[in-house]
Amino acid sequence: MPVRVICACGAVYNLKDQYSGARLGCPLCGRAVDVPTLPPPPPVRPQDGDPAFARETFLLHERHLGVSEKYSVLGKDGAPLLFVERPNHPFLNVLAIFGGLAGGLLHFMAFAGLGMAAKQAGLDAVTRGLLLLWTFGGSALAVVAVAQLLFKKRHITVYRDDSREETVLKITQDSRLQLSTASYTVAGPDGEPLAFIFKKRLRNILRKRWYGLGPDGPLFVAEEDSPILSLLRRMVLGFLGLMHTDFVIRSPEDGRVLGEFNRGMTLRDRYVLDLTPDPLRALDRRAALALGVLLDTGEGR
Ligand SMILES: [Zn+2]
To answer: How far apart are the first and last CA of the chain?
Structure first.
């Protein structure tokens, strides 16, 4: 922000703010001119947690190793900062589905037996009809409920590096089968929660939106960049495998842009979490990075 100063001779100068508070000689008339002192800039919010988080740009580089999703987090200069892992459990989840089917079968056999006993006991047709309905409906519910109980949650861990010795951040999936709301708790290495991040599935059919809550109130709202592109992505691009979704991260209070999560097609497997619109770090970078990982792993590209 330039400093404006007017000399007694009428000359007007717009000076760089490094001259704030200085006494300069006017090049036109030679008089001494006192440059006004600028108010100090607002302080940058100190970033808690690991020093790796105290920055504006994070690059997420997906690493294709095995079934789990893994990312290297790099700084703007490409230097490695952190390592992220989100395990996948395909085998355990197949087992969970079999467990669900077994639960449904047990339920079916139990109620089919009850139905036969009711017929022998000569119960009326309405009661037996309801029993038959529950034999089928309840069995279907039992399949879902048992599978849901057995599904393995997919937590995310942020490590110092790929040796995975030091944990820097934990992102915990809050419930197993997240039917209406998918929610995650972000915590430091000590387990103290610092943010909740969630999305509502129905709301997300048309345009994806994630919410962030901190200990002191709302942190951010992240939304797909354009409603028209959102529709196009679902209808056309998704089939072509071009499901790259960019998100804009805004302040929930005044809607001002805090950053962007960019999954541009130009940078293969490399996503940019750009928080330069928020130089004072109003948004906790730990919550922002957690959002970035969730947007990529939890969105079913
Ligand atoms: Zn002058």
So the answer is: 42
Q: Ligand 1 centroid vs 52 CA: distance in angstroms?
A: 49
- Tell me yes or no: is domain 51-89+152-297 CATH 3.30.870.10: no
Structure tokens at 14: 């717009």
Near ion ligand 1, which residues have CB within 5 Å? 7, 9, 11, 26, 28-29, 31
Residues in the chain: 301
Where along the chain do its domains lie? Answer: 3-34, 51-89+152-297, 92-150
pLDDT digits (tens, 9 = 90+) for 160-185: 998 999 999 999 998 876 667 889 99
Once rounded to an integer, what is the mean pLDDT over residues 275-288?
Answer: 95
Task: State the DSSP string of 18-61.
Answer: GGTT-EEE-TTT--EEEPPPPPPPPPPPPPPS-GGGSSSEEEEE
212: its two tokens:
């962030």
Centroid of ligand 1 to alpha carbon of 40 (angstroms): 27
